[in-house]
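Technical annex B. To support the medicinal chemistry partners, we prepared a structural model of the target in complex with iron/sulfur cluster, based solely on the information shown next.
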Amino acid sequence: MCLAIPGKVVSAFEAGGLPMARVQFGAVTREACLAYVPQAVVGDYVLVHVGFAISRVDEAEALRTFELLREMDQLTELDAPAVVAIDAPAVGDLLAGVPPCP
Amino acid sequence: MPIAYLDEYRDRALAERLVAQIRKVQTRPWVLMEMCGGQTHSIVKHGLDQMLEAALPHTLELVHGPGCPVCVTSLEMIDKAHAIAQRPEVIFCSFGDMLRVPGSRGDLFRLQAQGADIRVVYTPLDCLKLARQYPAKQIVFFAIGFETTAPANAMLVYRAHAEKLDNVSVLVSHVLVPPAIANILQSPANRVQGFLGPGHVCAIMGYREYEPIASRFQVPIVVSGFEPLDILQGALMTVRQLEAGKHTVENQYARILNRDGNPAARQLVYSVFETCDKKWRGVGAIPKSGYKLRWEYRDHDAERRFQVAEIDTLESDLCISGQILKGIKKPHHCPAFGTACTPLHPLGATMVSAEGACAAYYAYGRHLQPSMTGAGGPGRGPHTPQPGPPAT
Ligand code: SF4
Protein backbone atom coordinates (compact mmCIF):
# COMPACT_ATOMS: atom_id res chain seq x y z
CA MET A 1 0.00 0.00 0.00
CA CYS A 2 2.99 2.27 -0.39
CA LEU A 3 2.46 2.55 -4.13
CA ALA A 4 1.51 5.94 -5.47
CA ILE A 5 -0.82 6.11 -8.46
CA PRO A 6 -0.17 8.60 -11.27
CA GLY A 7 -3.02 10.77 -12.48
CA LYS A 8 -3.70 14.01 -14.35
CA VAL A 9 -4.70 17.21 -12.56
CA VAL A 10 -7.94 18.30 -14.26
CA SER A 11 -8.92 21.14 -11.93
CA ALA A 12 -7.55 22.84 -8.85
CA PHE A 13 -9.50 24.46 -6.01
CA GLU A 14 -9.37 25.09 -2.30
CA ALA A 15 -11.39 23.15 0.25
CA GLY A 16 -11.20 22.93 4.01
CA GLY A 17 -8.28 25.35 3.95
CA LEU A 18 -6.22 23.03 1.74
CA PRO A 19 -5.13 23.29 -1.89
CA MET A 20 -6.99 20.48 -3.62
CA ALA A 21 -7.33 19.11 -7.14
CA ARG A 22 -9.49 16.75 -9.08
CA VAL A 23 -7.18 14.12 -10.48
CA GLN A 24 -8.07 11.73 -13.25
CA PHE A 25 -6.88 8.13 -13.01
CA GLY A 26 -7.97 6.31 -16.16
CA ALA A 27 -11.77 6.31 -16.02
CA VAL A 28 -11.92 7.41 -12.38
CA THR A 29 -11.63 10.96 -11.05
CA ARG A 30 -10.90 11.60 -7.40
CA GLU A 31 -9.82 14.47 -5.19
CA ALA A 32 -6.24 14.86 -4.09
CA CYS A 33 -4.54 17.32 -1.81
CA LEU A 34 -1.79 19.42 -3.41
CA ALA A 35 -0.26 20.73 -0.17
CA TYR A 36 2.97 18.80 -0.73
CA VAL A 37 3.28 19.53 -4.46
CA PRO A 38 2.17 23.17 -4.55
CA GLN A 39 3.84 23.77 -7.91
CA ALA A 40 1.47 21.35 -9.71
CA VAL A 41 -0.98 23.00 -12.10
CA VAL A 42 -3.89 21.83 -14.22
CA GLY A 43 -2.62 19.51 -16.93
CA ASP A 44 0.29 18.20 -14.86
CA TYR A 45 0.63 14.55 -13.91
CA VAL A 46 1.18 13.80 -10.23
CA LEU A 47 1.80 10.67 -8.17
CA VAL A 48 -1.00 10.32 -5.64
CA HIS A 49 -0.86 8.25 -2.48
CA VAL A 50 -3.95 8.02 -0.20
CA GLY A 51 -5.34 11.28 -1.54
CA PHE A 52 -2.11 13.30 -1.47
CA ALA A 53 0.05 14.26 -4.42
CA ILE A 54 3.64 13.43 -3.45
CA SER A 55 5.54 14.35 -6.62
CA ARG A 56 5.13 15.35 -10.23
CA VAL A 57 5.80 12.91 -13.06
CA ASP A 58 5.96 13.29 -16.81
CA GLU A 59 3.10 12.11 -18.95
CA ALA A 60 4.76 9.09 -20.56
CA GLU A 61 5.92 7.81 -17.17
CA ALA A 62 2.44 8.37 -15.72
CA LEU A 63 0.66 6.46 -18.47
CA ARG A 64 3.05 3.53 -18.37
CA THR A 65 2.96 3.23 -14.59
CA PHE A 66 -0.82 3.46 -14.49
CA GLU A 67 -1.15 0.60 -16.98
CA LEU A 68 1.26 -1.50 -14.96
CA LEU A 69 -0.61 -0.87 -11.72
CA ARG A 70 -3.82 -1.83 -13.46
CA GLU A 71 -2.28 -5.10 -14.63
CA MET A 72 -1.00 -5.76 -11.13
CA ASP A 73 -4.44 -5.16 -9.61
CA GLN A 74 -2.95 -2.44 -7.46
CA LEU A 75 -5.61 0.23 -7.95
CA THR A 76 -8.00 -0.88 -5.20
CA GLU A 77 -7.25 2.30 -3.27
CA LEU A 78 -9.34 4.14 -5.87
CA ASP A 79 -12.40 2.00 -5.08
CA ALA A 80 -12.81 3.36 -1.55
CA PRO A 81 -16.16 5.14 -1.17
CA ALA A 82 -16.17 8.92 -1.27
CA VAL A 83 -17.13 10.80 1.89
CA VAL A 84 -19.34 13.80 1.17
CA ALA A 85 -17.80 17.14 2.09
CA ILE A 86 -19.25 19.58 4.55
CA ASP A 87 -17.66 23.00 4.28
CA ALA A 88 -14.76 23.55 6.59
CA PRO A 89 -13.78 26.85 8.10
CA ALA A 90 -10.58 28.37 6.77
CA VAL A 91 -7.85 28.07 9.38
CA GLY A 92 -5.34 30.52 8.04
CA ASP A 93 -2.10 29.84 6.34
CA LEU A 94 -1.26 26.23 5.73
CA LEU A 95 1.86 25.19 7.61
CA ALA A 96 2.09 28.62 9.28
CA GLY A 97 4.02 28.17 12.49
CA VAL A 98 5.27 24.71 11.53
CA PRO A 99 8.97 24.54 12.37
CA PRO A 100 11.34 23.67 9.51
CA CYS A 101 12.72 20.16 9.05
CA PRO A 102 15.50 19.20 11.43
CA MET B 1 13.23 -20.85 -19.29
CA PRO B 2 11.68 -18.59 -16.70
CA ILE B 3 12.12 -15.64 -19.04
CA ALA B 4 8.95 -16.87 -20.71
CA TYR B 5 6.99 -15.47 -17.77
CA LEU B 6 7.94 -12.04 -18.93
CA ASP B 7 5.96 -12.47 -22.14
CA GLU B 8 3.15 -10.50 -20.66
CA TYR B 9 5.05 -7.26 -20.52
CA ARG B 10 6.36 -5.18 -23.29
CA ASP B 11 9.97 -4.61 -22.39
CA ARG B 12 10.93 -8.23 -22.49
CA ALA B 13 13.94 -7.75 -24.72
CA LEU B 14 15.31 -5.10 -22.37
CA ALA B 15 14.69 -7.36 -19.39
CA GLU B 16 16.61 -10.16 -21.05
CA ARG B 17 19.49 -7.82 -21.72
CA LEU B 18 19.54 -6.75 -18.08
CA VAL B 19 19.57 -10.37 -16.92
CA ALA B 20 22.38 -11.16 -19.37
CA GLN B 21 24.29 -8.18 -18.00
CA ILE B 22 23.84 -9.43 -14.42
CA ARG B 23 25.14 -12.84 -15.45
CA LYS B 24 28.14 -11.22 -17.03
CA VAL B 25 29.23 -9.23 -13.98
CA GLN B 26 28.31 -11.85 -11.39
CA THR B 27 31.14 -14.13 -10.24
CA ARG B 28 29.42 -15.74 -7.24
CA PRO B 29 25.98 -16.13 -5.64
CA TRP B 30 24.42 -13.17 -3.85
CA VAL B 31 21.29 -12.62 -1.78
CA LEU B 32 19.34 -9.36 -2.19
CA MET B 33 16.29 -8.16 -0.31
CA GLU B 34 13.63 -5.84 -1.71
CA MET B 35 12.21 -3.51 0.94
CA CYS B 36 8.91 -2.49 -0.64
CA GLY B 37 5.77 -4.59 -0.82
CA GLY B 38 5.04 -3.19 -4.28
CA GLN B 39 8.37 -4.57 -5.44
CA THR B 40 7.57 -7.96 -3.88
CA HIS B 41 4.27 -8.08 -5.73
CA SER B 42 5.89 -7.16 -9.02
CA ILE B 43 8.77 -9.64 -8.56
CA VAL B 44 6.43 -12.54 -7.89
CA LYS B 45 3.96 -11.57 -10.62
CA HIS B 46 6.65 -11.40 -13.29
CA GLY B 47 8.68 -14.31 -11.93
CA LEU B 48 11.77 -12.10 -11.64
CA ASP B 49 13.07 -13.99 -8.62
CA GLN B 50 12.85 -17.30 -10.47
CA MET B 51 14.55 -15.76 -13.44
CA LEU B 52 17.46 -14.51 -11.36
CA GLU B 53 17.76 -17.64 -9.28
CA ALA B 54 18.05 -19.65 -12.45
CA ALA B 55 21.11 -17.65 -13.46
CA LEU B 56 23.33 -20.67 -12.83
CA PRO B 57 26.07 -21.22 -11.82
CA HIS B 58 25.84 -18.02 -9.79
CA THR B 59 22.36 -17.54 -8.43
CA LEU B 60 20.99 -14.19 -7.43
CA GLU B 61 18.40 -14.81 -4.78
CA LEU B 62 15.71 -12.24 -3.99
CA VAL B 63 14.25 -12.44 -0.49
CA HIS B 64 11.23 -10.43 0.49
CA GLY B 65 11.53 -7.83 3.22
CA PRO B 66 9.04 -6.46 5.75
CA GLY B 67 7.88 -3.84 3.26
CA CYS B 68 4.13 -4.10 3.69
CA PRO B 69 2.75 -1.87 6.46
CA VAL B 70 -0.45 -3.92 6.67
CA CYS B 71 1.59 -7.04 7.39
CA VAL B 72 3.84 -5.61 10.08
CA THR B 73 1.24 -3.72 12.13
CA SER B 74 1.54 -5.44 15.49
CA LEU B 75 -1.12 -7.79 16.74
CA GLU B 76 -1.47 -5.65 19.88
CA MET B 77 -2.36 -2.66 17.71
CA ILE B 78 -4.86 -4.66 15.65
CA ASP B 79 -6.50 -5.90 18.85
CA LYS B 80 -6.60 -2.34 20.21
CA ALA B 81 -8.19 -1.18 16.96
CA HIS B 82 -10.83 -3.87 17.34
CA ALA B 83 -11.55 -2.87 20.93
CA ILE B 84 -11.98 0.79 19.95
CA ALA B 85 -14.04 0.00 16.85
CA GLN B 86 -16.55 -1.89 18.99
CA ARG B 87 -17.44 1.16 21.08
CA PRO B 88 -20.90 2.50 20.26
CA GLU B 89 -19.82 6.15 20.05
CA VAL B 90 -17.03 5.42 17.55
CA ILE B 91 -16.91 5.62 13.77
CA PHE B 92 -13.76 3.68 13.02
CA CYS B 93 -12.03 4.62 9.76
CA SER B 94 -9.34 2.63 8.01
CA PHE B 95 -7.68 1.94 4.68
CA GLY B 96 -9.43 -1.02 3.06
CA ASP B 97 -6.42 -3.35 3.38
CA MET B 98 -6.69 -3.44 7.16
CA LEU B 99 -10.20 -4.85 7.32
CA ARG B 100 -9.21 -8.46 6.70
CA VAL B 101 -6.10 -8.53 8.82
CA PRO B 102 -6.61 -11.19 11.47
CA GLY B 103 -6.38 -10.01 15.05
CA SER B 104 -6.45 -12.37 18.01
CA ARG B 105 -10.19 -12.74 17.67
CA GLY B 106 -11.30 -12.18 14.09
CA ASP B 107 -11.01 -9.14 11.84
CA LEU B 108 -12.68 -5.75 11.34
CA PHE B 109 -15.08 -7.24 8.77
CA ARG B 110 -16.47 -9.51 11.44
CA LEU B 111 -16.98 -6.55 13.78
CA GLN B 112 -18.66 -4.64 10.96
CA ALA B 113 -21.04 -7.56 10.43
CA GLN B 114 -21.79 -7.44 14.15
CA GLY B 115 -22.86 -3.81 13.85
CA ALA B 116 -19.72 -1.78 14.52
CA ASP B 117 -19.54 1.42 12.45
CA ILE B 118 -16.38 0.77 10.42
CA ARG B 119 -15.67 2.74 7.26
CA VAL B 120 -13.12 2.37 4.54
CA VAL B 121 -11.74 5.74 3.57
CA TYR B 122 -9.85 6.76 0.45
CA THR B 123 -7.79 9.36 2.26
CA PRO B 124 -7.24 10.30 5.93
CA LEU B 125 -8.79 13.70 5.09
CA ASP B 126 -12.16 11.95 4.79
CA CYS B 127 -12.10 11.70 8.58
CA LEU B 128 -12.30 15.51 8.80
CA LYS B 129 -15.46 15.46 6.71
CA LEU B 130 -16.96 12.74 8.92
CA ALA B 131 -16.01 14.68 12.05
CA ARG B 132 -17.86 17.76 10.83
CA GLN B 133 -20.81 15.67 9.74
CA TYR B 134 -21.15 13.71 13.01
CA PRO B 135 -20.10 16.06 15.81
CA ALA B 136 -21.57 13.76 18.48
CA LYS B 137 -19.53 10.78 17.29
CA GLN B 138 -15.90 9.92 17.89
CA ILE B 139 -14.05 9.58 14.59
CA VAL B 140 -11.02 7.30 14.99
CA PHE B 141 -8.55 6.73 12.17
CA PHE B 142 -6.23 3.73 12.05
CA ALA B 143 -3.06 5.58 11.01
CA ILE B 144 -0.81 2.84 9.68
CA GLY B 145 1.88 2.99 7.05
CA PHE B 146 5.48 3.60 6.18
CA GLU B 147 7.01 6.99 5.50
CA THR B 148 5.00 7.27 2.25
CA THR B 149 1.74 7.50 4.17
CA ALA B 150 2.99 9.60 7.08
CA PRO B 151 2.47 13.01 5.38
CA ALA B 152 -1.19 12.19 4.72
CA ASN B 153 -1.78 11.00 8.27
CA ALA B 154 0.13 13.98 9.68
CA MET B 155 -2.11 16.35 7.72
CA LEU B 156 -5.22 14.77 9.25
CA VAL B 157 -3.91 15.40 12.76
CA TYR B 158 -2.64 18.87 11.92
CA ARG B 159 -5.94 19.97 10.41
CA ALA B 160 -8.06 18.36 13.14
CA HIS B 161 -6.01 20.25 15.71
CA ALA B 162 -6.14 23.53 13.80
CA GLU B 163 -9.89 23.26 13.28
CA LYS B 164 -10.42 22.15 16.89
CA LEU B 165 -12.21 19.02 15.77
CA ASP B 166 -12.00 17.41 19.19
CA ASN B 167 -13.85 14.32 18.06
CA VAL B 168 -10.99 13.21 15.78
CA SER B 169 -8.32 10.88 17.08
CA VAL B 170 -5.79 8.56 15.45
CA LEU B 171 -4.50 5.15 16.44
CA VAL B 172 -0.92 5.58 15.28
CA SER B 173 1.03 2.55 14.11
CA HIS B 174 3.64 4.04 11.81
CA VAL B 175 6.78 2.12 10.91
CA LEU B 176 10.03 3.31 9.39
CA VAL B 177 12.21 1.53 6.86
CA PRO B 178 15.83 2.41 7.82
CA PRO B 179 15.67 0.94 11.37
CA ALA B 180 14.17 -2.24 9.90
CA ILE B 181 17.10 -2.58 7.49
CA ALA B 182 19.53 -2.11 10.38
CA ASN B 183 17.63 -4.69 12.41
CA ILE B 184 17.82 -7.27 9.61
CA LEU B 185 21.54 -6.66 9.19
CA GLN B 186 22.19 -7.05 12.91
CA SER B 187 20.52 -10.44 13.12
CA PRO B 188 22.94 -13.39 13.44
CA ALA B 189 20.75 -15.30 10.97
CA ASN B 190 21.01 -12.56 8.35
CA ARG B 191 21.68 -13.71 4.78
CA VAL B 192 21.00 -10.43 2.99
CA GLN B 193 23.98 -8.87 1.22
CA GLY B 194 22.36 -6.00 -0.65
CA PHE B 195 19.07 -4.09 -0.62
CA LEU B 196 16.68 -2.69 -3.17
CA GLY B 197 15.48 0.42 -1.34
CA PRO B 198 11.81 1.48 -1.35
CA GLY B 199 11.12 3.99 -4.13
CA HIS B 200 7.97 5.68 -2.92
CA VAL B 201 9.14 5.87 0.69
CA CYS B 202 12.20 7.73 -0.58
CA ALA B 203 10.01 10.00 -2.72
CA ILE B 204 9.07 11.52 0.66
CA MET B 205 12.18 10.95 2.74
CA GLY B 206 14.96 11.12 0.15
CA TYR B 207 17.79 8.71 0.79
CA ARG B 208 20.26 10.54 3.00
CA GLU B 209 19.33 8.43 6.01
CA TYR B 210 20.31 5.23 4.17
CA GLU B 211 23.88 6.41 3.69
CA PRO B 212 25.10 5.78 7.27
CA ILE B 213 23.51 2.29 7.15
CA ALA B 214 25.26 1.40 3.90
CA SER B 215 28.63 2.46 5.24
CA ARG B 216 28.23 1.07 8.76
CA PHE B 217 27.11 -2.38 7.61
CA GLN B 218 29.10 -2.29 4.38
CA VAL B 219 26.07 -3.16 2.33
CA PRO B 220 24.95 -1.63 -0.97
CA ILE B 221 21.48 -0.08 -1.04
CA VAL B 222 19.96 0.82 -4.41
CA VAL B 223 16.73 2.79 -4.18
CA SER B 224 14.53 1.27 -6.89
CA GLY B 225 11.15 1.55 -8.51
CA PHE B 226 8.70 -1.32 -8.63
CA GLU B 227 8.35 -2.02 -12.34
CA PRO B 228 10.07 -5.17 -13.68
CA LEU B 229 12.79 -3.20 -15.45
CA ASP B 230 13.36 -1.00 -12.38
CA ILE B 231 13.87 -4.07 -10.24
CA LEU B 232 16.21 -5.78 -12.69
CA GLN B 233 18.21 -2.60 -13.14
CA GLY B 234 18.32 -2.12 -9.36
CA ALA B 235 19.55 -5.70 -9.01
CA LEU B 236 22.24 -5.08 -11.63
CA MET B 237 23.43 -1.93 -9.85
CA THR B 238 23.54 -3.80 -6.53
CA VAL B 239 25.45 -6.76 -8.00
CA ARG B 240 27.95 -4.39 -9.62
CA GLN B 241 28.62 -2.85 -6.21
CA LEU B 242 28.89 -6.25 -4.52
CA GLU B 243 31.31 -7.52 -7.12
CA ALA B 244 33.42 -4.37 -6.80
CA GLY B 245 33.36 -4.54 -2.99
CA LYS B 246 31.52 -1.21 -2.81
CA HIS B 247 28.75 -0.23 -0.43
CA THR B 248 27.07 3.03 -1.27
CA VAL B 249 23.52 4.25 -1.74
CA GLU B 250 22.55 4.59 -5.39
CA ASN B 251 19.36 5.87 -6.94
CA GLN B 252 17.83 3.76 -9.70
CA TYR B 253 14.56 5.73 -9.47
CA ALA B 254 15.96 9.16 -10.33
CA ARG B 255 13.02 9.92 -12.60
CA ILE B 256 10.82 10.10 -9.48
CA LEU B 257 13.02 11.08 -6.57
CA ASN B 258 16.27 12.71 -5.50
CA ARG B 259 18.41 12.64 -2.38
CA ASP B 260 16.17 15.17 -0.63
CA GLY B 261 12.74 13.65 -1.21
CA ASN B 262 9.81 15.98 -0.56
CA PRO B 263 10.85 18.52 2.11
CA ALA B 264 7.37 20.08 2.43
CA ALA B 265 5.88 16.70 3.30
CA ARG B 266 8.67 15.87 5.72
CA GLN B 267 8.28 19.20 7.46
CA LEU B 268 4.71 18.43 8.45
CA VAL B 269 5.55 14.84 9.39
CA TYR B 270 8.27 16.02 11.77
CA SER B 271 6.03 18.64 13.30
CA VAL B 272 3.26 16.13 14.10
CA PHE B 273 5.19 12.92 14.82
CA GLU B 274 8.32 11.93 16.71
CA THR B 275 10.14 8.61 16.54
CA CYS B 276 9.51 5.90 19.12
CA ASP B 277 10.34 2.24 19.65
CA LYS B 278 7.91 0.04 17.76
CA LYS B 279 6.84 -3.56 17.76
CA TRP B 280 6.57 -5.15 14.29
CA ARG B 281 4.30 -8.10 13.75
CA GLY B 282 6.35 -11.25 13.38
CA VAL B 283 9.61 -9.34 13.76
CA GLY B 284 9.45 -7.98 17.30
CA ALA B 285 10.44 -4.65 18.81
CA ILE B 286 12.87 -2.45 16.87
CA PRO B 287 14.30 0.65 18.56
CA LYS B 288 13.25 4.02 17.09
CA SER B 289 11.42 2.31 14.24
CA GLY B 290 8.04 4.03 14.46
CA TYR B 291 6.22 7.31 14.90
CA LYS B 292 4.02 8.50 17.72
CA LEU B 293 2.21 11.81 18.09
CA ARG B 294 4.14 14.69 19.55
CA TRP B 295 2.98 15.93 22.95
CA GLU B 296 1.23 18.96 21.42
CA TYR B 297 -1.13 16.62 19.60
CA ARG B 298 -1.79 14.20 22.48
CA ASP B 299 -5.49 15.10 22.57
CA HIS B 300 -5.81 13.38 19.21
CA ASP B 301 -4.19 10.17 20.39
CA ALA B 302 -6.79 7.39 20.32
CA GLU B 303 -4.80 5.17 22.68
CA ARG B 304 -4.82 7.96 25.24
CA ARG B 305 -8.45 8.85 24.67
CA PHE B 306 -9.87 5.35 24.94
CA GLN B 307 -7.40 3.93 27.46
CA VAL B 308 -7.67 0.41 26.05
CA ALA B 309 -6.48 -2.07 28.64
CA GLU B 310 -3.79 -4.60 27.74
CA ILE B 311 -5.27 -7.38 25.66
CA ASP B 312 -3.96 -10.95 25.63
CA THR B 313 -2.85 -11.54 22.07
CA LEU B 314 -3.19 -14.87 20.32
CA GLU B 315 -1.07 -15.44 17.21
CA SER B 316 -1.50 -18.58 15.11
CA ASP B 317 1.29 -20.98 16.08
CA LEU B 318 1.53 -22.29 12.52
CA CYS B 319 2.48 -18.94 11.04
CA ILE B 320 6.15 -18.37 10.21
CA SER B 321 5.65 -14.89 8.77
CA GLY B 322 8.25 -13.50 11.19
CA GLN B 323 10.99 -15.52 9.51
CA ILE B 324 9.62 -14.64 6.09
CA LEU B 325 9.73 -10.92 6.87
CA LYS B 326 13.37 -11.19 7.88
CA GLY B 327 14.33 -13.02 4.70
CA ILE B 328 15.15 -16.27 6.51
CA LYS B 329 12.30 -18.31 5.02
CA LYS B 330 9.93 -18.06 2.08
CA PRO B 331 6.15 -18.56 2.03
CA HIS B 332 6.26 -22.08 0.61
CA HIS B 333 8.30 -23.18 3.62
CA CYS B 334 5.23 -22.61 5.78
CA PRO B 335 3.23 -25.81 6.36
CA ALA B 336 0.00 -23.82 6.32
CA PHE B 337 0.72 -21.99 3.03
CA GLY B 338 -2.09 -22.59 0.54
CA THR B 339 -3.75 -25.18 2.78
CA ALA B 340 -4.86 -23.92 6.19
CA CYS B 341 -3.84 -20.39 5.20
CA THR B 342 -5.24 -18.73 2.04
CA PRO B 343 -6.23 -15.14 1.19
CA LEU B 344 -9.83 -16.00 2.08
CA HIS B 345 -8.83 -17.47 5.44
CA PRO B 346 -5.53 -15.84 6.34
CA LEU B 347 -3.75 -17.05 9.46
CA GLY B 348 -1.10 -14.37 9.31
CA ALA B 349 -0.88 -10.82 8.03
CA THR B 350 1.47 -11.62 5.12
CA MET B 351 -1.43 -13.53 3.52
CA VAL B 352 -3.79 -10.55 3.65
CA SER B 353 -2.40 -7.69 1.64
CA ALA B 354 -1.56 -8.08 -2.05
CA GLU B 355 1.90 -6.84 -1.10
CA GLY B 356 2.47 -9.48 1.54
CA ALA B 357 4.86 -12.19 0.38
CA CYS B 358 2.46 -15.06 1.17
CA ALA B 359 -0.46 -13.46 -0.67
CA ALA B 360 1.73 -12.65 -3.68
CA TYR B 361 3.03 -16.24 -3.86
CA TYR B 362 -0.53 -17.51 -3.59
CA ALA B 363 -1.94 -15.11 -6.19
CA TYR B 364 0.58 -16.27 -8.76
CA GLY B 365 0.06 -19.96 -8.26
CA ARG B 366 3.16 -20.85 -6.28
CA HIS B 367 1.20 -22.98 -3.81
CA LEU B 368 0.69 -25.35 -6.73
CA GLN B 369 4.41 -26.08 -6.85
CA PRO B 370 5.37 -27.95 -3.69
CA SER B 371 8.99 -28.29 -4.79
CA MET B 372 9.58 -24.60 -5.35
CA THR B 373 13.04 -23.20 -5.64
CA GLY B 374 14.46 -21.01 -2.95
CA ALA B 375 16.48 -21.22 0.18
CA GLY B 376 15.32 -22.52 3.51
CA GLY B 377 18.03 -20.95 5.59
CA PRO B 378 21.71 -20.30 5.84
CA GLY B 379 22.72 -23.93 5.52
CA ARG B 380 20.95 -24.74 2.27
CA GLY B 381 22.25 -27.21 -0.24
CA PRO B 382 23.09 -26.59 -3.88
CA HIS B 383 20.48 -24.80 -5.90
CA THR B 384 18.28 -26.84 -8.21
CA PRO B 385 16.18 -25.21 -10.89
CA GLN B 386 12.48 -26.01 -10.67
CA PRO B 387 9.53 -25.59 -12.97
CA GLY B 388 7.95 -22.14 -12.90
CA PRO B 389 4.37 -21.09 -12.21
CA PRO B 390 1.62 -22.01 -14.66
CA ALA B 391 0.93 -19.49 -17.41
CA THR B 392 -1.79 -17.06 -16.41
S1 SF4 C 1 1.22 -18.88 4.66
FE1 SF4 C 1 -0.10 -17.99 6.24
S2 SF4 C 1 0.45 -19.05 8.12
FE2 SF4 C 1 2.13 -19.39 6.66
S3 SF4 C 1 3.59 -17.74 7.04
FE3 SF4 C 1 2.24 -17.02 5.42
S4 SF4 C 1 0.63 -15.89 6.53
FE4 SF4 C 1 1.68 -17.18 8.06
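Notes passed to the chemistry partners:
Chain A touches chain B through 53 residues (CB under 8 Å).
Residues B 318-321, 324, 331, 334, 336-337, 341, 346-348, 350-351, 358 surround iron/sulfur cluster (CB under 6 Å).
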